[in-house]
Every structure is written in C-alpha cells, then in structure tokens.
From TrEMBL:
Database matches in InterPro entries: Amidase, Amidase_CS, Amidase_dom, AS_sf
Keyword Amino-acid biosynthesis in record: no
Protein name in the entry: Amidase
MF term (GO), any: amidase activity
Sequence similarity: Belongs to the amidase family.
C-alpha cells in the first residue's frame, strides 16, 4: 500500500477501491490530524475515535470481500446540527444533551454509502452567525490565517476540510452558512435545492430556509458527497425531482448567459461591498467571458419583500429549536433576544412570510425566464468583506451583532428564501500573502444544480484553485510531513 495518503474525497475512494490504501490508514490519519490541530483550529465538537476505527475496520473487511459503495471507507465530518446515533446534537449550545438514538436521514445515507463519520464539527449557537465562536466550545480558527474566522455557521466543517483533516464535510445553509465559510476558506460549497438532502427527522428545517450542503476542495468531491447524501424521506415536506450531479462535473456547460449581480438586497441597514471583493468577483466574471460565456450586469428583482419573508422564518425557527436546549439560561444573551422575537413572529407573521415566497420566486425568476432576461446563471459576491477577525463581534449586543452580520454577509440569504441552488467558488485572496480567501457564488433557478456544478467545474479547470493550501497544511494532509 502507498505511504502517501490521498488528499481528496474522490482520490480516496479510488485508492480504497484499488487497494492502494486502507480505510484504517485514512481514518487514523484523519484522527491524528484532528488531535494535532484541535488546540489551534478547534474544528470539532465531538470526535468519534473508537467508533470510527471500528467502522474503518469493517469497511476494510467489505473492501477485501469485493464490496463497492460510493464512499466506502472514507472519513468525513458532519456539522453538529446533524444527528449521529450515539452522539448528542448540541448545535453550538452549552448544556448536557442526550445522545441520539438514530442517525438523521442525511447521515444515514452517507453511512449507507460507506462513509466513516469521524466527528461532529463546531457551529455557533443555533447556526445564527457568520463566525464560529461560543462559550460552549471556544473559538474555531481559519487554517489560512488563525487570527481570522473560518466563517459560519458551518465554520468547523470548513476549517476541517481546508486544513486537510477530512476530505469533505457536511454543513448546513440557512442564510449562507455553507457558502460563507466556503468563501472564507477557499473551498467549494454547495447549497442544493430545498429538499434535495432530507432534513428528517424534521419535515423541514427552520421553516424551509435551511438545507444540508457539501464542503470540499474540488467540485468533483463536493458533488460526490452531495450525491451520496441526496434523497428524500417519506416525511419530508419538500421532495424535488432527481437531478444528476455526478455526470455534470465532466459535462461542458455550453455557452451561457451570466448575470453579474453586485447589488445586495434591501435590508434597511448599512452595507458596503469591499473594493477587494468587488475586484475579485469582476476578475471571475472576466474569466467566464474568456471561457466563452456572455456576462452582463443585471440584478434580481428582490424588492423589499425578500427580507420580510426571511426574518419570521428564521426567528421562528430559532424559537422552535430552542425547545431542545436543556437550560435556556445557558444561551448567549443575543440568542435569547432572537428566541423572544421568534416567539412573537411565529404566528400570523410567519404565515404571511411563507405566503410571500411564491410571488417572490416569480419576480426573481424573471431573471432566468426566456420571456424576460433569459439568463442561465447569476454571479454575485458570496460575502461583502474578507474574513472577519476572531472576536470581532464577541462584545457586541444583539442589535449591533445583527447589523454587523448583515454588513459582512448580505448576499447569500435570499436564495434560502427561494429554496434554489447556489455554489460558492474560490475567487482569490484579499491580501498579497494569500491568507484571506474570498468567494463568489453561482446562483441558479429551481433544480439547477447540474448546470451550476458543470460551470463551477469549468472554472475550476481554468483556475486550479485546489492547488493552493493554507501554509504548512499540504505536507501534513498528504501524509508527507
């Protein structure tokens, strides 16, 4: 067997199937890397060392017997809002949470595909913020620059993948929570169509705005994890038609009309697109044009209703999830404020917010309609700023935290209201040293994951983002250090 550990998810799958490496070797390496970095990056809330090694040995037995599954024997991580049997789901909160008796449907599917879940990654309380910090677990740091956050709320998953601890991870996205940390850690982050990955045992998550998604270093790896997790449970409220994301990785997207959108939706608060982010997105737009696509500045017609549709659903979702917390007194005072608002917004305001979704879809959908503008894809910034410094919002009150969050990350959340797919792609760095990653998002209409993945793969072949690693990480990730 090879002494060099393959880095990517697809590479590990191929190496395992070819007998070049064992699942135990991959899992041991992941566990060693987690232990080495936990005191600095702090990516994980729970590590399943003994269970993961047992599962790796079973995967090796199945591989030796000729069994083949899409992810058989590869180590992955999942965010700590996904139920894993035998582990608590604390979702960033303090307190003693009971261990779950069953996997959630997404984790069940990943395990059925053969994946070995090595642990659960850190997330801020109830996934509210674009930073991964909290009294329950401390500070999760960015592998590219430990003075900065990896983003949130899937910041632990992003840090784990960016640092090479695992080849891919499951996150969740309720207002950009997969795409924002992907942007700030130089990763591919896929937010799929609502319902593409089941949220069961919840019929829907946070009143339909939250979905699971994949984080990986390459488009192929993100698509592979997405495909393995995809599928509906009979109890799911949203069950979209199937799409083929795997073959899309190697499919030419054809010549597309791309809407370049730089204007954030209306929120009534101060927002400013940092010039370095603007320049990075414009460079990506130029590359799309060089690849043969027609790129035209155009803006979705969000109107004022998109924010009014988002807020009650998010706040009511926080209120509902807070009922799982053993002691609400342990919650951050900002979380408690949001929970109180959610209790007030959970009745008629929530019903009105949900009723506004379909008219909003029609209005924004005009951007993609052949009767309207006829664009295939939209390109926009993922965030308005480079990665925030650790502790930037630690001492802020609820009002100022919300305003600072909107100012840094005003671009991602409308697609959660719409329920449509989006993919973050790396867009360069904010500094000359290459320690502050930036991202841009490809946005599509309903069920457009194959087109977005195909376009992202074309850009990846041109830009070769995956060749860049955080300083000092690549050798350790590859098993050479």
């Amino acid at each position: 067997m090879t002494s060099v550990i393959p880095q990517g998810l697809s590479e590990q799958v191929r190496a395992l199937a070819g007998g070049e490496v064992s699942s135990r070797a991959l899992v041991e390496r992941a566990l060693d890397r987690i232990a080495e970095t936990q005191g600095t990056l702090n990516a994980f809330r729970r590590v399943r060392a003994e269970a993961a090694l047992r599962e790796a040995d079973e995967a090796d037995r199945l591989l030796a017997a000729g069994r083949r599954l899409p992810l058989l024997g590869v180590p992955i991580a999942v965010k700590d809002d996904a139920d894993v049997a035998g582990e608590p789901t604390a979702f960033g909160c303090r307190g003693e949470f009971p261990p779950k008796t069953e996997d959630c449907e997404a984790v069940r599917r990943l395990r059925a595909a053969g994946a070995v879940v090595v642990g659960k990654t850190n997330t801020p309380e109830l996934g509210q913020w674009p930073f991964t910090e909290g009294p329950a677990f401390g500070l999760t740091r960015n592998p590219w620059n430990p003075d900065h956050t990896p983003g949130g709320s899937s910041g632990g998953s992003a840090a784990a993948v960016a640092a090479g601890l695992v080849p891919a991870a499951l996150g969740s996205d309720g207002a950009g929570s997969v795409r924002i940390p992907a942007a700030w850690t130089h990763l591919i982050g896929v937010k799929p169509q609502r319902g593409r990955i089941s949220t069961w045992p919840e019929a829907e998550a946070f009143n339909g705005i939250t979905c699971y998604g994949s984080l990986a270093r390459t488009v192929e790896d993100a698509a592979l994890l997405l495909n393995a997790a995809t599928g509906s449970h009979p109890g799911d409220l949203h069950q979209p038609p199937p799409v083929d994301v795997l073959s899309a990785v190697r499919r030419d997207p054809g010549r597309l009309r791309v809407a370049l959108s730089l204007k954030p939706p209306f929120t009534g608060t101060h927002k400013h697109l940092d010039p370095v982010v603007r320049a990075a997105v414009l460079r990506l737009a130029e590359r799309l044009a060089a690849l043969g696509h027609e790129v035209v500045e155009a803006e979705p017609r969000y109107g004022v209703g998109v924010g009014l549709s988002f807020l009650p659903r998010a706040m009511a979702g926080l209120w509902e999830w807070s009922s799982h917390v053993p002691d609400r007194a342990l919650l951050d005072v900002r979380t408690l404020t949001a929970v109180r608002h959610g209790r007030l917004l959970g009745g008629r305001p929530l019903r009105l917010a949900r009723a506004a979704e379909e008219p909003l879809r029609r209005r924004v959908g005009e951007l993609f309609s052949r009767d309207g503008h006829g664009f295939d894809v939209a390109l926009s910034p993922t965030t308005a700023t480079p990665p925030l410094r650790i502790g930037t919002m630690a001492e802020l009150n609820s009002w100022h935290t919300d305003r600072a969050t909107i100012a840094a990350c005003p671009y991602a959340w409308p697609w959660n209201v719409l329920g449509w797919p989006a993919v973050n792609v790396p867009a360069g760095f904010a500094d000359e040293d290459g320690t502050l990653p930036l991202g841009a998002q490809l946005l599509g209409p309903a069920n457009s994951e194959p087109l977005l993945i195909s376009l992202a793969a074309q850009l990846e072949a041109d830009q070769r983002w995956y060749e860049r690693w955080p300083g000092g990480v690549r050798a350790g990730a590859a098993g050479l250090g």
